Amino acid sequence: MVITIAPLFAIYKLFLPLKEAAIEFSERLCFFGLSTNLITYLTKVIKQDLKTAAKNVNYWAGVTTMLPLLGGFLADAYTGRFAMIMISSAIYLLGLGLLTLAQFIPSLKPCKTGKCSHPSKVHEVAFFIAMYFISLGTGGYKPCLESFGADQFDDDHAEERKKKMSFFNWWNFALCCGLVFGVTFIVYMQDYVSWGVAHLTLTVAMTVTIIIFFLGKPIYRYRVSLGSPLVPMLQVFVAAVAKRKLPHPSSADLLYEIPRSQKSQARLLSHTNKLRFFDKAAIIEGNETLSADKRPSPWRLATVTQVEELKLLLNMIPIWLTSLTFGTCVAQVATFFIKQSTAMDRKIGNFEIPPATIYTVTAIGMTISVILYDRVLVPTLRRITGNERGISILQRIGFGMIFSVLSMTMAALIERKRLGIAHKEIVQGVSSGPVSLSVFWLAPQFMFLGIGDAFTLVGLQEYFYDQVPDSMRSLGIAFYLSVTGVGNFLSGFLITAVNHITGTANGSGWFGKDMNSSRVDYFYWLLAVLNGLNLCVFVFIARRYSYKNVQRHVAVADCHVGNAAESMA
Questions:
Q1: Are 540 and 233 in contact (CB under 8 A)?
Q2: Nearest 5°: CA angle at 15, between 11 and 21?
Q3: Phi and psi of 61, rounded to 5°?
Q4: Which CATH number fits domain 8-226: 3.30.565.10, 1.10.10.10, 1.20.1290.10, 1.20.1250.20?
Q5: How far apart are CA 3 and CA 326, in angstroms?
Q6: What are the tens digits of pLDDT across the range 526-563?
Q7: This model's pTM is above 0.85
Q8: Residue 505: which residues within 8 A CB-CB, separation 6 or more?
Q9: Rounded mean pLDDT of 508-516?
Q10: Among 296, 385, 445, 490, who pairs with 411 as Cys (CB 3.0-4.6 Å)?
Q11: Which Pfam families does the UniProt entry name for this protein (predicted)?
């Protein structure tokens, strides 16, 4: 009997959304399982003090969320998304494997006996090498997998468009599930079973899902890499500088553009009057001959679309810069927020909640906010404003920034209350460990930040995907991630600067050895003020921002010049 594998492949392809979502689930399971409890590992196992551990968490998270810029660029320009996913997955597994071995091989263990005051330097080196291998793997994997999954569906077919919507639903569901399981199941194993068993579980989960993903290789759709998307930007700059002495034409219709029939993939953009210096790159000089079979040098003459793409990137810089303080607030979740929970009463009856599990409140706040926004607010606001999105992308981002201020304010108030109880109990000799204040007092600050994530972080993801040039869309996720990446570095810088300014000869300052000897509430107030001031600057910039202006059609007669097509905002 002859068995054909074609039906098996057909069935396998039906489960594309589930398969793509599975690998996202396992990666987010690993990421949140490691990142949310990282500060606990650094302080309890490697024995670092609070400020050193917080900075190390910030730097690791910063590198992890900045490397996707490099990974996304290399995937778009050279390797392609599938190859980048497989290469980065192998690096990711290498990091997880080393992390696991460091808990089981005697020479790599933190302590040769059960506990020790100073862990092995060999273990510390192996641990950080493993963690940064995971960062490197995330840098290639994160900007490519979601885009690669979406590439499997054709927007020109109605049925596949529906499947694509299903894919994104599964994707976000998997992300939330990975987060919740990471900060509950994995964190519980780390705290109450063993770090080695938890890391082994993550390694096995990631290995299984990568194998499942690789088995679909024969039936995937692949997009060809078209070279560096940054080269056309450089060509516009060079051409504009070369023609800097030429006067602007009397009409934008006289600037150079190609017809849609010659445009390979990206859409044509309409001319805007901002940053007009770069328009000179599209001025046609008298000695330039244009024909359908002979293209001018791209280093001497650029199209209006190329000029506008450069303008888009330059206009995005102020928005990106004013989003960084929000990323600094997000950085506090994996550092001081978690350390606050370790210094509070986490018991529910006879069960003690792992410190990092409180992070689930952020996920709950984000999930509820996204559902309410999508199902209730958007339809209502759409009728009021006439905007297809209900409110503009930047309005959504700015609204979420308000909650970062509220979160830091609430965190400062709760930390001040916790410190008051801690000092009172220490003086009375009641307790030298966690105070009697319930950990659920932290719920509001986690909830506010979760709501802020639903508006600002999701809004930034949409903004960078929508506003970047079409040739750079796979880098949009990387730009979005870089906000939290730089935010983590800024948090580390602020900790160093504040410690230097507030520290005295006897070593006291805002950051001591532990939470009870620190004044983290002052640091929260500082972040609240910085975010409030930054919000004012963001509103000022957002009110003057011009969104991408895409042409609906180009007339056939406009073969070489002209930009008179109807446009949409």
A1: no
A2: 160
A3: -65, -35
A4: 1.20.1250.20
A5: 57
A6: 999 999 999 999 999 999 998 887 765 443 333 333 33
A7: no
A8: none
A9: 83
A10: 445
A11: PTR2
